[in-house]
Write a structure and sequence with these properties.
By secondary structure, the protein is mainly alpha-helical. The chain is built from 11 helices and 4 strands; from the N terminus they run ααβαβαββααααααα. It has a 4-stranded mixed sheet, sandwiched between helices. A hairpin with a 5-residue loop joins strand 3 and strand 4. It starts with a helix and ends with a helix.
């Protein structure tokens, strides 16, 4: 994702945190600080614990791919080419894949990275298609999509949560702000909280997929294998078992296919121009 877009998205919760800080500085006291800590500390710890357990469950409930598997040297070669760390490879637990709405493969981890494959990925895709999907997953690591999504989502969550509750602080002891100001601050907190869930998270997910597709096509030089691999994964039994998920996957796939085809044509034209400067 372009830095300007990301900074613009993050500037909204940062502004909300600034307002919260101003409220604490201007009208806060020891009692207020204690209430703020009591509200935020358990929420922050709970989120951290959930993320830690989520990553742990992926590794505990999935099967490590043997190091002698031919997929390892191919994945490592792509990782080296793309300038990212070598990833551990797993055959993912099918139940987790369905719960997380993952289609065939997904990347996990922020400090140490793994790629989880469905059994269908290993059985149905040919070598070129597997490498194209792996390049896509490695691109998520290259662009730190998991970390970006987590930081941004949590920023909106905590900014909205705190702004809503902080709106009551100025008038706890004496009336310092008008009711309209208090209502506006509280309303902004609600909008931030739900806007992060309904708008920002889906937008980041869409942009990260588009960016990973572009990087994969540039690394591979062509997008045909990526498109055919994605088509096969959408037809996997775990996806087709849920008709709603199947329709959504196909709708998403169509838009991505068009972008990948356009990028492939553009890349082919540039390569041809380099070979024939005259």
């Amino acid at each position: 994702m372009k830095n300007g877009t990301l900074y613009g998205i993050l500037s909204v919760p940062l502004l909300a945190f600034f307002v919260c800080g101003y409220i604490l500085w201007h009208w806060g006291n020891a009692e207020v600080y204690g209430v703020v800590f009591a509200l935020d500390a358990p929420a922050a710890f709970g989120i951290f614990l959930r993320l830690w357990n989520d990553g742990k469950s992926w590794h505990q409930r999935s099967t490590p791919l043997p190091r002698e598997n031919p997929l390892y040297p191919r994945a490592n070669e792509l990782a080296t080419k793309m300038g990212v760390p070598h990833h551990d490879l797993y055959v993912a637990n099918s139940t987790l894949m369905v719960m997380r709405k993952a289609v065939g493969a997904m990347t996990t981890g922020i400090r140490s990275h793994s790629v989880m494959f469905s059994d269908y990925f290993l059985r149905a895709l040919n070598q070129e298609e597997q490498e194209a999907i792996i390049a896509h997953e490695l691109a998520h690591t290259k662009q730190s999509h998991i970390l970006t999504s987590a930081v941004t989502s949590l920023s909106y969550y905590f900014a909205g949560w705190n702004l809503f509750f902080f709106s009551a602080i100025p008038n706890l002891q004496t009336s310092n702000l008008s009711r309209s100001w208090v209502s506006s601050i509280a309303g902004a907190g609600i909008l931030l909280f739900f806007g992060g869930i309904i708008i920002v998270r889906p937008y980041l997910a869409m942009k990260s997929q588009t960016e990973a597709d572009e990087i994969a096509v540039n690394v591979l030089g062509i997008g045909d294998s990526l498109i055919s691999g994605m088509k096969k994964l959408v037809e996997s039994p775990e996806i087709k078992a849920d008709q709603k998920k199947y329709r959504m996957a196909y709708q998403s796939l169509y838009g991505r296919m068009v972008r990948i085809q356009n990028l492939s044509r553009s890349l082919a034209a540039r390569n041809l121009a380099r070979k024939d400067p005259a």
